[in-house]
Each structure stands twice: as structure tokens, then as C-alpha cells.
Amino acid sequence: MSLAARRARYVLKRLVQAIPVVLAIVIVNFFLLQLAEGDAVDVLAGEAGSATPEYMAQLREKFGLDQPLPVQLAAYMKNVLMFDLGYSFRHDMPVSELVFDRLVPTLLLMVCTITLAVGFGIVLGLLAASGLNTWRDNLISVFALVSYATPLFWVGLMMIVVFSLRLGWFPTSGMENFAAFHEGWDRVRDIAHHLVMPVITLSLFYLALYTRLMRASMLEQAGMDYVTTARAKGLTERRIVFVHILRNALLPVLTMAGVQVGALIGGSVIVESVFAWPGLGMLAFEALFARDLNLLLGIFLLSALLVVAINLVIDLLYSFLDPRIEVG
Amino acid sequence: MRFWKLFARNRSAVMGLVILAAVIALAALASVFFPDDPFRLVGRSMSPPGENGFLLGSDTLGRDVAAGIAHGARVSLLIGLLATTVAVALGVVLGGVAGYFGGWIDDLVMRITEMFQTIPSFLFAILLVAILKPSISSIVIAIAVVSWPAVARLVRGEFTAMRNREFVQACHVVGMGDARIMLREILPNCLSPIIVTASLMVATAILIESGLSFLGLGDPNVISWGFQIGAGRTVLRSAWWVCTFPGIAILLTVLAINLVGEGLNDALNPRLRER
């Protein structure tokens, strides 16, 4: 079989493997909805202010809420497959529309954060490992320990105090200055200006994680036989570190980047609500305040699917990066 | 005392232990230092630190920030410990059964664990607390539900590695039951990695709790550090101290627990012992 065909089969296999996870997530979502007090009809009746028990029973029949659980579950799954995530009564809009509107700002925030955290994490980990037990290593380790222990929302608030309120370098909240009517490059620059503090805040925790991981990974690789071989061949230390060790040490860091995407979404709820960044996390915060459970569940479902999708992509990327991983 | 010697070799772990002891003392003596209810309005609102008799200032309503921190220490430590206990119990049972019996049980438990690790855990915790209504018990449940998979994986690995060892086979030969072998024979042999993981989980649980109560999902009847910061963020411009000090309390506590956890790892991990 050709390599291309084997790759295609691997992609297909991974896709099939993701299906049970997605199904399980949908089922968990359904049961969470059941767990909540009251159903959609109670909400509707509450919004309307007046509803007779007969009318409510009629509505339940119309929505299929009087059906046995398995039937309701099947109906729910059918809806989810068609991207119908229910209706947000607070926003008076379908949940799917609301959620997709807010997806782009969150993705922008996450992509920038991952790039910054992984990039700097690799550099810092490399610096720490190459100067093992010197002041440089100790300083980086202390930095990693402290950022690992700091709550994200507090870092965000402190950055607002220092860099927005005292120094006035960055805006306190939002994604762009709508009043200025920026267009083209001005708008891009404006968004980038707003992006700086949320990205740094969200990166800190993950930066610490990747730094520690990269340091450990470098140290582990440095003890391998191929390094001894390279040294015996008379290669320079610089070449050994950058060409031989670095490449192998990168792999676990990349895997971790995939695993952490789920955690990153959790962090973005906090960071977005601190900086009023108009993404999914901010929407979740608003939904929480309005007790809009349908919307909250929609966000949860979409972000869980996002994690599955990103992990799939990383797995595939990985098989290209490391030919030793069996394809097929 | 051999254990203490090993632990004390790691100086930062000893420092962590000192800070942690101070936090525990603060929590224990909160009612002695600050006999008033931390929610009570005790003086001029928005007093800066050191003025009007407030060591760390007062908030928008005139509540004492320092009293809130002292009483909040109780809540944070309590929730951290409870949630970790529940998560460890859940993880040990599920992971132990999966590793000991293997086969389809193992497959099933591992698939469930994988699913839980895929789900964005903080968002899941938010949902659980929102649905169960905020209270100490719902927060503990939510944190435990999102943290047990790590323990389950660890315990499963240990049990899988041990189930065919000679001492376990000997137990089978003398006719011991499965439950007794698992609890009395295998479990004590993999206690050290569980203790290390659990100690680090307490730190994570405190961070999750502070995040939840920052978002307004804390138990409304008890004061907590996250709540204080969440309540103070609206007056960030005029009263920075309301947010700042509770955050430092979280940072120090979590840092101390992490340091102690690493110290325990060094002391308990036999592979590193003769370093």
C-alpha cells in the first residue's frame, strides 16, 4: 500500500475512534440538562409570566418533553447532529448562532496563547536545561513555580491595575474600540493592542507548564546513547543540543500542547470575563449570570467538540513529525 | 525520622511546609483574631491598608479584608481537602478495579477516564455547580468529578504492574478474597505515588475553588478568597487592596502545597532516593 493510502486510512481510523467520545459527550450533556431543576417549558412559562397547567402540559407535548427518556435522548442527539442546540430565551436567539458568533474571538485568543506559551516555554526550558543548576536555571524554575500557583484572574486584575490604570499602556477591556471606527490595518492594530494583556495572562500558567516539561524532556534526552555517540563523533556541543537533542525533546511538549487545550478553554472563561473579551468564555460568564442553562450547555458541547477536533489534528500532525509512529 | 531527613533535604519543601503551617494556623485561629462574622460591616468603607484600624484595608461595604482572608483560609483548605479525598477515593476504587481485573472492565473504565480528560474540566465544573446550586458540597462534588481521572490512571497503572507479582500470587494461593488482596496487599504498596498526587491535587482544587467563587459560584454563606476578589474587581481603580491581598493568600497557599508535594515526591519516590 502506498504511503498516501496508509495516511488516509490512519486519518479515517482516528475519525472513527473519535465518534464514541463525541457520543459520550452528547449523552453527558443531555443528562446534565435532565439534572437541572425545571425544563424549557418552566422557563417559557416563567418568561411569559402567566401559564395555566393545561397550557404547560400542551407545550410539553409539543416539545416532546412528555416522552420517555430514551426517546428524548434520541431526539436531542438528532438535534445536535443538525447543530440545533436549543434556544436561548435571554438573548432571544438560537444557541448555535450565538455560540458560533463568539467562536472567532476565542480561537484568536487561544491560537495566540498557545503560540506564545509553547514558544517561550521551549526557549525557557532550553535555557534552564542548558545551564543546569546555575542561577539561570534556578531563576526560571522559581518563575515557573510561582506562575504555576497564581490564579489567572488575579494576574489579569493586577495587570489591569499596573498597565492600564497606572501606566495607561493597554486598554482595560474589550476586543476593539468601536467608537473609533477603525478600518483595515488600523483595526488589526487596534485588536492586537487589546489582545496583549489577555494573551499574556492566559499564557502564564501554560508557559510554566511547558517550561518545566521542556526542561525535563531536554534532560532526559541528554542522557540517551545517541548523544554519547554524537559527542564521540566530535560534534560541537552547540550542534548536539540544537540539532540532536532539541528535535527529540520537542515531541512530548507538542503532545502536551494538545492535551492542554481543554484546560485552556477553562482558563479562557476566566480571562475573557476579566478582560470582557467577547468570546465563548465571556458568553459562558454572561449565561451563568442570566441562569441561561441552554446556552451554557451549548458552549460546553461546542468546546468539548473543539477539544476532540484539535487533538485529532495534533495526532495527525504528530504522525507527520515523527515517522516512528506507526501509521495504518 | 528517616522520612523527615529525606524530606528536609529539599530546602524549598521545608519552606513550603512553614508557609502551609502558617496558613493552617491562620485558619484555625481565625475566630480568635477576628471574632466577628467576616461579612459584617465593621467600619468605614474603602479604607486603605493601615487606616481606620484595618490592617489590609476594607472593601466597598466596609468589611475587613484581613478578616475575610483569615476566614477564607478555612473554606479554601476545607474544600481542597474534601474534594481531594472524594476524588482520590473515586480514583482508587475505579483505577484499582480496572487494573486488578483487566479485560473489559479495564477497557470500560479507561474509556470513561479518557472522556473525562477530554471534556474541558473547568467548564464542566462550572456547569455542575450551576446545575446543583452553589454550596460547599456541590463545589466539592464538581471538583472531585473533574479531578478523579488522574488518580484512576495512576492507580490503574500501579495495580496492573502488581497484579501478577509473586506476593499477589501467593495471596491467591492461600485463598484470600479479591477485595482483601486489593485493599490490604496491593494498595499499601502503591501508597507513595498516590500521596504525592493527592498533595498536588489539593493545590489544584484550591485554585479551581477560587476560580469558581470568583465567577460568583461560591457558597453564598461562607466567605472565600475568590469571592473577595470577584467582589473587589469593580473598584479596582479606587481600591486595589481588596483584590490584591486575597490573591496573594491564594498564591502563597497553592505555592506552599506544591512545594510540599514536590518534597514528598523526592522523599517517597524510591527511584530518586539515592540520587
Description:
Chain A is mainly alpha-helical. Helix content of chain A is 78%, strand content 1%. Chain A has 13 helices and two strands; from the N terminus they run ααααββααααααααα. Chain A has a two-stranded antiparallel sheet. In chain A, strand 1 (87-88) and strand 2 form a beta hairpin. The longest helix of chain A has 38 residues, at 185-222. In chain A, 34% of the residues are buried. The model of chain A has no long low-confidence stretch (mean pLDDT 80). Chain B is mainly α and 275 residues long. Chain B contains 13 helices and no strands. The two termini of chain B are 19 Å apart. The mean pLDDT of chain B is 84.
Which helices and strands occur, and which strands form pairs?
The complex is a heterodimer of chains A (328) and B (275).
Chain A: H1 3-35, H2 40-48, H3 53-63, H4 69-81, E1 87-88, E2 93-94, H5 95-130, H6 135-149, H7 152-166, H8 185-222, H9 225-232, H10 237-259, H11 261-275, H12 280-289, H13 293-321
Helix pairs in contact in A: 1-13, 5-6, 5-8, 5-10, 5-13, 6-8, 7-8, 7-11, 8-10, 8-11, 9-10, 10-13, 11-12, 12-13
Chain B: H1 2-8, H2 11-28, H3 30-33, H4 65-101, H5 103-118, H6 121-132, H7 136-162, H8 166-173, H9 178-186, H10 191-214, H11 225-232, H12 241-268, H13 270-273
- Structural class, judged by helices and strands of chain A? mainly alpha
Order of helices and strands of chain B: HHHHHHHHHHHHH
The profile of the biggest β sheet of chain A is: 2 strands, antiparallel
Oligomer: heterodimer
Structural Rg of chain B: 22 Å
Low-confidence stretches of chain B: none
State the low-pLDDT regions of chain A, or none.
none
Structure classification of chain B: mainly alpha
Quick rundown:
The complex is a heterodimer of chains A (328) and B (275). By secondary structure, chain A is mainly α. Chain A has helices at residues 3-35, 40-48, 53-63, 69-81, 95-130, 135-149, 152-166, 185-222, 225-232, 237-259, 261-275, 280-289, 293-321; strands at residues 87-88, 93-94.
